[in-house]
Amino acid sequence: MSCNDEASIAAVAVRNEDTQFDFVDGLCKTRGWCAPTFTLDGMHCPFCKNPDTKVVDTRVGEDGYSIRRRRECPKCSRRFTTVETATLMVIKRSGNVEPFNRDKVITGVRKACQGRPIKEEDLKQLGQRVEEDLRARGLAQVPSDEVGRAILGPLRDLDEVAYMRFASVYQEFNNLEDFERAIKELRDQESKEGNESHD
Questions:
Q1: H helix runs in 26-159, sequence order
Q2: Are 182 and 167 in contact (CB under 8 A)?
């Protein structure tokens, strides 16, 4: 994939368990140690800075959206791992653009789930469903409103009370009529799903 492709690339080179380097669109965003700039054609060795490294193993990540590459430097013979992912960008209402963050989705939904019998694993699965939905659209950028809409379906399936809480904030309910309309939509959806299960 080249820099001109629609989806941008993010990569993380891991020297050891304690040291990570973030590369987003060719810029090094570090945590403690800075390696030379990542390019799509190759990766500088984080140990000796040799620009010529070779891939010795490639595996697709469990999520299906990332590729792990084991690399070796022919100069110092040391190995390191890179993780390449297609970056999904979110367009905020302010016009700012930032990478999609599944943890932000989970944090936002967690507030609506307070006091409900929902496990942390359920929230993680919801976050994964939202990301899969957004990525399946084949777009490099999605409006933040679309992220909210993508949350509503999985959250309704998970817990209707949490769904109503989230929807009331996301859809800016102003009065009882808004709640009544949302409840009616929930009941209509349940009725429709019940009829489909009997067919």
A1: 102-112, 120-135, 144-158
A2: yes
